[in-house]
Design a protein that fits this description.
alpha/beta; 5-stranded mixed beta sheet; single chain; about 25% strand
Length: about 160
């Protein structure tokens, strides 16, 4: 059974553009590599041809995976989301209770996550630990480095 993931309009558009690029440019490059390798002679002992065929197979696998993801993607309607609890697409201001550091994160789908941009996946340990929390709640989250405690200071969309 396919997994349904929720995306922002920008995130879904980015996935569709990547898929289109792989189908057009990626397949053209793979075909060119195969043609060049085929021109080098005997295919039975042509390692370059074997490598090009393998690369083509991996490209087709990636295309199939992206097609499945895009096919099972659902757009989020932010107007229907409860702003009093941490949900996907929530912008959350947190305070680390250990060092009093204040952090800002936006919870997004796994494929849209980008820590440098402050976007964390709802499937990450911190994302999972924050889901359903309200302002003033404390979340104790187990991460690879140990246990962290965060206080939810603010939730917005």
């Amino acid at each position: 059974m396919a997994t349904i993931n929720y995306y922002t309009p920008e995130g879904l558009q980015k996935l569709k553009e990547e898929l289109q690029d792989l189908k057009i440019r990626g397949r053209a490059e793979a075909a060119e590599q195969l043609r060049e390798a085929r021109d080098k002679g005997d295919l039975s002992e042509n390692a370059e041809y074997d490598a090009a065929k393998e690369a083509q197979g991996l490209l087709e696998l990636k295309i199939a995976k992206l097609e499945e993801i895009v096919g099972n993607a659902r757009l989020l309607d932010e107007s229907n989301l409860d702003a009093s609890k941490v949900l996907i697409m929530s912008k959350v201001k947190l305070r680390n209770l250990k060092n009093n550091m204040v952090l800002d994160y936006t919870l997004v789908a796994e494929e849209e996550a980008n820590l440098a941009a402050g976007k964390i996946s709802v499937k990450s340990p911190i994302g999972k630990g924050l889901l359903g929390k309200s302002v003033g709640d404390t979340a104790e989250i187990t991460v690879p480095a140990g246990k962290l405690q965060f206080e939810v200071l603010e939730i917005s969309r």
